[in-house]
Design a protein that fits this description.
By secondary structure, the chain is an all-alpha fold. It has two domains: 1-85; 87-160. The chain has helices at 10-39, 43-74, 93-120, 130-159. Helix 3 runs antiparallel to helix 4. The longest helix has 32 residues, at 43-74. It is flat, with a radius of gyration of 20 Å. The protein starts with 9 loop residues before the first helix and ends with a helix. The relative contact order is 0.10. Bound molecules: fe (ii) ion (FE2) (2 copies). One fe (ii) ion (FE2) is lined by residues 107, 110, 141, 144.
Length: 160
């Protein structure tokens, strides 16, 4: 269990507790996947479990970074939190907005390409995991668009 925050408000402490207890759950799940990835006799399962491990490690890291950033603010420590504040998007938010506009278009093209690629793999869908891997990339692309749309919205807000 994590040390409670010093001088935090109720909502900060509640959020902190949820972040750290969820991080704990994620860690247990991560260990289970790592064992599965390491021990299974099936190379196919080991490969796929290793992909999940990568994601779970990131979840674990993000939850930890949010909790530490919350501690920094709640306890009024100086310095930059691990999760940066949005802070006006630097000296040139216009540039950030432009860049994210452009990148989201790339991601849209990428998504169309991946969908076509997956269709071409129809004949091997029961003998390989390739269509699954392409499908996962499509989901990642959707995620990247979510990130970029957030940046677009927020950086344009900073401009107005
Ligand atoms: Fe997770
Ligand atoms: Fe992408």
């Amino acid at each position: 269990m994590q040390e409670p925050l010093v001088g935090a408000s109720v909502w900060e402490q509640t959020l902190f507790d949820h972040l750290t207890s969820h991080e704990e759950n994620e860690r247990e799940l991560l260990v289970e996947y790592q064992q599965a990835a390491g021990e299974s006799q099936s190379p196919a399962f080991r490969y796929l479990a290793a992909l999940i491990v990568e994601d779970e490690m990131r979840h674990h890291r993000l939850l930890g970074e949010m909790a530490e950033s919350l501690r920094l603010d709640a306890e009024m420590h100086p310095g930059e939190p691990a999760v940066p504040r949005l802070g006006g998007w630097g000296p040139d938010p216009h540039r950030v907005a432009e860049l994210s506009d452009r990148l989201v278009q790339h991601e849209e093209m990428d998504l169309q390409f991946l969908k076509r690629l997956r269709k071409e793999m129809d004949t091997i869908k029961d003998t390989t995991m390739w269509p699954l891997l392409v499908k996962l990339m499509e989901l990642d692309t959707t995620k990247h668009m979510e990130i970029l749309n957030f940046v677009r919205r927020q950086s344009k807000r900073a401009l107005s």
